[in-house]
Amino acid sequence: MTRATGDPGLGLRVSGDGMVAWLVGLSATAPASDEAIRALLRKHKISCGINEARIAELVHARHNDALDALPLRDEDVASSDGLEYCIAKGEAARDGIDAVLTWHLDIAADDVGARVVLPGEVLATLLPASTGNPGVTVTGKRLHARNGQPAALQPGSGVLATPGAQHETYSARWLGVAEFDGHVLTLDPRLSVAADAMAATMDLFPRSASGQAVTAEHALGVLEAHDVVAGVDPDAIQQVLDSAAANPEAGAVTLAVAHGKLPTIGRDAQFTVLHRGSMVGQVLAHGRIDFHERDYPWNVRGGDSIGHLKEAQPGEDGYTVRGERIAAAPVQSVSLQLDGVHCDTHGKLAAEYDGALFVDGHHLSVAELLVIAGDVGAQTGNVDSRIPVHVKGHVIAGFQVKSRKDVIVEHNIEDATVRAGGSVLVKEGIRGHASEVFSPHDVQAGFIENANVFANGDICVRNSVINSTLSANGLIVVGGKNASRGSLMGGVAHANHRIEVVTLGASTYARTEVAVGMSSETRERLDELQAELAEREVELLSLLQLQERIRTHPPTDLAEVSTKLEATRANAETRQAELQKARETLLTSLGDIDAVRVVVYRQCHPGVIVHIHEHRHEVTNALGPGQFMLHEGAVVFVPL
User: Are 89 and 49 contacting, i.e. CB atoms less than 8 angstroms apart?
Assistant: First the structure.
């Protein structure tokens, strides 16, 4: 205790824990002032919890000799020094309250059924932990407080946490089994979806832990919450739950609650051509005709059945239990072009009138037919027809056959010329250095020797090609993949897309050149188009700049200059559009330039030269089955 200077009876006593300060020695005879009391507080470094009102009250009572009438407070004490008045009081620290977790079911039960809950049922309530409030002594010393211990609980899948004024509530989002790992509270729906999402199984409980019946709506809610929305079997779910309800001792039943659906396989369109009651052509690939029938083209009468078309039947899409679409495989359709041929609702193809039936790929036509009973030669002279021509014999050396439609030759073309507006079919062969055959569609022959054949479509040869020049914008096929023979030896053969042969070259090292892809003429034409397109772009840019200068600095004859400028620009744009269209047409005719191939099904002899897009490769060793293709700027051979 310390006495203040000038006030010998006045002092200050501080409790041992620093929580209370009392004014000592204040009596009716001892002088006291507010300044003296303040000096004592400063001397004892008391700065917190000072009761200003009490100090003022004590000083006033002392000056008015009313201390005896002043009521004592609970904190005031009587000692040997007289009455001690509390004028400062610290604040004690208050520890926080630990969290209180209350379970509404037996979360630790081994019996799964004891932990089954329905949507909305409360799993647990949590009174959250509170934080402690620190205290302070009258001298300002801080007193630390302990925070309440929180509960190790976090809501996981299927659990909804709802804050409240007093506590948090944890309830079920869906039907399931409550699981607690000491940290996270989850609700297991007991739902299993296959890895490919084609099936879903679920454990169905007859009742919850609280004794409430589980309904089909509860189970369906679980499926919906987990995106199982397709192929659900609600009747099976209801049946299982009804059966369980009738048996109080029934446990959980594992049920396949949803099934996906695989897509069904569709059917490609089927197109058959009939002649004399038997099939002689079927989806004629690349427009080829089955020319084993010696009397092709076939004479028909109006109403005769000539074939059938079965339309494609697309497959039905499938789906997973999550509703994801599984697309059915596409089917191949057939689009027929019919002239003089009728197709009824059942797909029956019939001739509309008397005539000759021609089959060119998917083009069927019944037309007039010019039949040359024997050879085209001195007795007939050259033939020039607007309708299809059928030569029953040979086309003799030096003579020509021209037709705006198809041309069929039963025997050979011998040093003669055939020009067709449609396809050309030679049932035997084409030979002779003077022989030339031209077709905007396809050319088919039994053999070709020392001849020149040009087709805008495909060239198909049944047996052999010897020392001839062939050019096709489509394919060149000699023999084919499953043919027993089909050799291409000597001469030059070029196809935009593909060449397929059984045997390429000859053991005599006869020089044989084959080329696929872009020819030098095509490359030159493409370069010309590119160069002129670049010129037009520069011209249009210059015209645009000139228009801008005229706009900012108009000449005196503005109208005349503008008219000429617009006309020049229109001409340049028209020419640019023409060039772009020509370039697109040229590139389209080339097809997929990366897919060009020379395919050999049996053997390739040395001496063969292969060109692919102007890249050259010479075969120096005998090769087996394989294909020549372009890889990283070089022609390579890849065995089959």
Answer: yes
Query: Would you say 618 and 605 are in contact if contact means Cβ atoms under 8 Å apart?
Result: no
Question: Radius of gyration over alpha carbons of the chain, in Å?
Answer: 52
- The two structure tokens encoding residue 401: 């056959």
Same domain, 244 and 274: no
- Distance, C-alpha 179 to centroid of its chain: 38
Residues in Cβ contact with 317 at an 8 Å cutoff, skipping those fewer than 6 apart: 263, 325, 326, 327, 328
pLDDT for res 286: 43
How far is 369 from 421, CA to CA, in rounded Å? 14
Instruction: List Cβ neighbours of 385 (8 Å cut-off, separation of 6 or more).
Output: 370, 402, 403, 404, 405
Does the predicted model carry a pTM greater than 0.85?
A: no
Instruction: Count CA within 13 A, CB hemisphere, residue 17.
Output: 10
Q: Are residues 49 and 118 in the same domain?
A: no
Pair of tokens at residue 48:
């917190």
φ, ψ at 359 (rounded to 5°): -120, 115
Decide if 45 is inside a domain: yes
Whether the CB-CB separation of 208 and 163 falls below 8 Å is answered with no
pLDDT band at 185 (very low <50, low <70, confident <90, very high): very high
Q: How far is CA 517 from CA 512, 584, 593, 610, in A?
A: 17, 16, 6, 11
Domain range for residue 558? 521-593
Phi, psi of 233 (to 5 degrees): -110, 85
- The residues, ordered by sequence, that sit 6+ positions from 336 with a Cβ below 8 Å of its Cβ are 271, 309, 343, 349, 362, 363, 364
